[in-house]
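Predicting holo structure, zinc ion bound.
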Amino acid sequence: MLTHRVNILVLFIFLLVFGVLIYTYKWSVATLTFPVLFFAIIEVVGASKLSANFHFNSICKAKTNEKIVSITFDDGPHGEATEKVLAVLKEYNVPATFFCIGKKIKNETSLLKKIEDAGHIIANHSYTHNNLFDLQSTTKLIEELELTNITIKKIIGKTPLFFRPPYGVATPALGRAIRKNNMVSVGWNIRSFDTSIKNSEKIFEKIKPQIKPGSIVLLHDRVEGCDIVVRLLLNYLKENHYTVVNLDKLINQPAYA
Ligand SMILES: [Zn+2]
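Done. Tokens:
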């Protein structure tokens, strides 16, 4: 598999070959731009696809033939919208994992407790989730993860082990921060595009053909109508004899330290 280390090795080989060609055939030194550019493109593409495991490993699905799937929610807790999602999950008696943003938890402490009391998993989705999240230093990223874990522990008494990178971007610095906090990066293999598509049925139609044994579905509980998508999804899973299990069971890893 093409990883960051393999890319560096390829760059090194290319630079050596180009160096020989420049020396032997008097090629322009500017031709070195090509291997460097190639390297940079691979780095950016690798970082933008979590499932590529380019800079660090992320679990994006489970290897199984059993008809089991997990449902995950990012960017909460988010007041009324999260409450509506919780109500549907309760009605169907289904567990889920909530990847929460640390700074949002401060104003939603009782809601976070309610999520945990209902038997769902609370996981870490950074503290700020800001637009420039991936450009921060390793030290800052370590703080982002730590602070969120501390905030969560104060409320539910447990330290999360699951972390989901904001925007699904994987950088070397984030990999170091995840390792430093002894966390596990968890991605998804079913993206619903629920933050851009406004119609609940259309969102569900995007999800439906992708459902396979071992799938991890990504939804956002902050999005209006998320509860409608969840209901459509749970009806479909039931009709097709799928069982929804929580993430710790699906990937066989503990959710808390
Ligand atoms: Zn997010």
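The pocket of zinc ion is lined by residues 74-75, 125, 129, 166 (CB under 6 Å).
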